[in-house]
Each structure stands twice: as structure tokens, then as C-alpha cells.
């Protein structure tokens, strides 16, 4: 099964495979009690900072995301722990949704959390398969406040970049959060208020060891306690990769083909 991190757990739940109490509450006959189905919902949440520019952006700058940046804040860590996109769109086209005015011309940067520590969940609200499942991402609920602090650092780094040439020469003013928002608490409140998904759901049928009570699949992608069913998509990720998950999904698919083919030889 490879229906993705939303529909793979959805299919399992509607098939009676998932947390017993939740299935029984909806009147779905329980085929297999598997508590981890729908748990461990992951994403790459990001915030945004918008500037008005002195004039229109060159016409050759027309992509949705014109540039990207990975930052390793802690030199002791093996990889980056902060990611940015640089956009003309979509955020400079509709900052009104955040409560700010729309500049005539603008650009934005979006600090993003590559390795978030908060965990959400997906669950059914109805036994009717045509009703979409509920997704509760639970952003910024990690006990260490790591995720919120990551975005605060990201907003500060974005401002440092904006103050350096050649970008500084293009920028007229900061639209949001605005130059008056400088303290950690203020920046954290803003970052959390405007945070949004980047449509990277993962982890809802996570892989784990035999003693992991919330693992849905084993290291060979087999659904625990059942035979003849494997899952091969982003739902099996136990943690979020620090990059866009598509490359990981391709690797999972390749591994699934190898495992299935090897067993049938």
C-alpha cells in the first residue's frame, strides 16, 4: 500500500486496523488493534518574513521559490537545522491574511524547521469513507520549545541576510512582522501565529522495533500483526528527514520492491 501519509492510515482505519477504542467509538468493526495508526504526524512547519522592495523584481525571477538556504546553527551537529525559501510568491501576494498590508512589490523568506520535534495525529471523525480524516499537526507542542526557538532564530537570520548587499539595496522596508518586533517572546508569538504547512505530511504509520508500542510497520515494511500487507510511502518515516521528503519516499519504494522481489524469488 502506498497511498501517502494521509490516505494510508485512513485506509487502515476504515478497514478496522488501528486503535481499538477509536474504531469502536465510530462503530467500525475492529480487525486488528494497532494503536500507532495515525499517530506521529510529521510536517515541516515554517513561518514567513515579508519585505517591500524598491521596485518590481526582474522578470527573469519568476519561480515560486527562487532560492533556498540551509543553516547549521550548531557546528557540533552533522547537518542543517534551519532551512529557508526565498519567494516572490505566494506570501507577498496575500499578507492581508496575516493582518498586514500588501506591498506593491515585495519578497519574502520562510524559515522552516527541518527536524521538528512536535508530533501530531490523524484520526477519523466518521465511519463514512467519504468524510476526510482530521489532521491535528500540534505544531509547537514539544516540551523543549525547540520548534518555536528554531523559527525565532530563523527570523533573526533572515533579517541579517536582508541587511547585507546586494539584497539590502533592493529592500524598502520590512512589512511583517515589522521592525518593532524584536524580542524573543514577540518573535515567537509572531512565528507561531503565521506558521503554516508546506504539505510534507509523514510518519502516520511509522516504522519501529518490536518493542515500540506505536510502530505500525516493522523494518521490512510489514504491518505488524498481519500478513500480506506492506506500506511503502512517507507514512512509515519514524522521524522527518531534513529535506523535502520526496527523495526518501523514492528510497522507500525502491526498498519495498527489493524486499518483495527477494521474497518471491
Please explain how this structure is put together:
A 5-stranded antiparallel beta sheet has the order 5-6-7-4-10. A 3-stranded antiparallel beta sheet has the order 3-8-9, with helices on one face. The model has no long low-confidence stretch (mean pLDDT 92). It folds into 2 domains: 103 residues, FAD/NAD(P)-binding domain, CATH 3.50.50; 121 residues, Cholesterol Oxidase, domain 2 (2-Layer Sandwich). The protein is elongated. With 265 residues, it is α+β, with helices and mostly antiparallel strands. The longest helix is centred in the last third of the chain and has 19 residues.
Uncertain stretches = none
N-to-C SSE string, H for helix and E for strand:
HEHEEEEEEEEHEHH
How many strands in all? 10
Taking Cα atoms only, what radius of gyration do you get, to the nearest Å? 21 Å
Average pLDDT confidence is 92
Count of all domains: 2
> Multimeric state of these chains?
single chain
With strands numbered from the N-terminus, the spatial order across the biggest sheet is 5-6-7-4-10
What is the end-to-end distance? Answer: 21 Å
- Just give the CATH class of the largest domain: Alpha Beta
Report the CATH architecture of the largest domain: 2-Layer Sandwich
CATH topology of the largest domain: Cholesterol Oxidase, domain 2
Beta-strand content estimate: 15-25%
Helix proportion range: 10-25%
DSSP helical segment count? 5
Amino acid at each position: 500500500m502506498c497511498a501517502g501519509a494521509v490516505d494510508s492510515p485512513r485506509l487502515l482505519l476504515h478497514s478496522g486496523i488501528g486503535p481499538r477504542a477509536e474504531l469502536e467509538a465510530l462503530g467500525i468493526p475492529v480487525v486488528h488493534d494497532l494503536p500507532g495508526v495515525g499517530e506521529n504526524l510529521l510536517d515541516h512547519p515554517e513561518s514567513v518574513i515579508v519585505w517591500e522592495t524598491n521596485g518590481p523584481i526582474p522578470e527573469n525571477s519568476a519561480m515560486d521559490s527562487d532560492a533556498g538556504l540551509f543553516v547549521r546553527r550548531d557546528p557540533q551537529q552533522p547537518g542543517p537545522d534551519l532551512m529557508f525559501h526565498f519567494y516572490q510568491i505566494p506570501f507577498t501576494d496575500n499578507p492581508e491574511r496575516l493582518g498586514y498590508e500588501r506591498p506593491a512589490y515585495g519578497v519574502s523568506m520562510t524559515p522552516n524547521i527541518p527536524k521538528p520535534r512536535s508530533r501530531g495525529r490523524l484520526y477519523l471523525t466518521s465511519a463514512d469513507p467519504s468524510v476526510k480524516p482530521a489532521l491535528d499537526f500540534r505544531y509547537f507542542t514539544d516540551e523543549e520549545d525547540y520548534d518555536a526557538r528554531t523559527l525565532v532564530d530563523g527570523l533573526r537570520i533572515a533579517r541579517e541576510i536582508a541587511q547585507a548587499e546586494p539584497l539590502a539595496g533592493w529592500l524598502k522596508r520590512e512589512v511583517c512582522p515589522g521592525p518593532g518586533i524584536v524580542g524573543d517572546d514577540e518573535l515567537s508569538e509572531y512565528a507561531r501565529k503565521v506558521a503554516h504547512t508546506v504539505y510534507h505530511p509523514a510518519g502516520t504509520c511509522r516504522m519501529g522495533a518490536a518493542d515500540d508500542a506505536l510502530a505500525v510497520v516493522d523494518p521490512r515494511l510489514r504491518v505488524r500483526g498481519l500478513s500480506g500487507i506492506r506500506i511503502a510511502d512517507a507514512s512509515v518515516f519514524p522521524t522527518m528527514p531534513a529535506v523535502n521528503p520526496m527523495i526518501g519516499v523514492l528510497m522507500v519504494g525502491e526498498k519495498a520492491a527489493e524486499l518483495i522481489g527477494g521474497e518471491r524469488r
